[in-house]
Design brief:
- There is one protein chain.
- By secondary structure, the protein is α/β, with parallel strands linked by helices.
- 36% of the residues lie in helices and 21% in strands.
- The protein has one domain: Trna Endonuclease, Chain: A, domain 1.
- It contains six helices and five strands; from the N terminus they run H-E-E-E-H-H-E-H-H-E-H.
- It has a five-stranded mixed β-sheet with strand order 1-2-3-4-5, with helices on both faces.
- The radius of gyration is 19 Å and the shape is globular.
């Protein structure tokens, strides 16, 4: 059950990457794409690319937010650069909407260099409202 929640959170974070125009290079829990390698000993969920810019994505749970080493991890991942061109690598963080404020407070504790590269997103399952169901329930007067 826990793995299904993690998989769903990664899928929702990938949707945020797609909205920003990024293409997924590697991801956790994927069928066709390879799993990303560790970055400095830390697990990442997604690696993506937009033109010549790279981004790393991680999802956080309540247990992760209570971890005392999380600030160190976010500082490290937030200050990454590409190997040869030294371009900054953005860090996308996906957090369930219940813990968004806790994550915002945690990001405020980061170094200034890391803060510039971090993008925080609330990920939640919200059903898409369809107007068609309302139309179908109305009575048809003339056929």
């Amino acid at each position: 059950m826990l793995e299904l929640i993690k998989r769903r959170n990664v899928d929702l974070l990938i949707e945020q990457f797609w909205k920003k125009g990024y293409l997924t290079i590697s991801r956790k829990y994927g069928t066709y794409l390879p799993e990303p390698s560790k970055v400095g000993g830390f697990d990442v969920d997604i690696v993506a690319k937009y033109k010549k810019n790279y981004a790393i994505g991680i999802t956080l749970t309540n247990a992760d937010l209570n971890d005392h080493k999380l600030v160190e991890k976010l500082n490290f991942l937030g200050t990454r650069q590409t190997k040869y061109t030294n371009k900054r690598v953005l860090l996308f963080i996906g957090v369930p909407i219940n813990f968004y404020n806790n994550a915002r407070i945690l990001i405020d504790k980061l170094e200034n260099e890391a803060k510039k590269n971090v993008r925080l997103f609330s990920i939640n399952d919200k059903p898409i409202l369809q107007r068609r169901t309302v139309k179908d329930s109305e009575k048809i007067l003339f056929a």
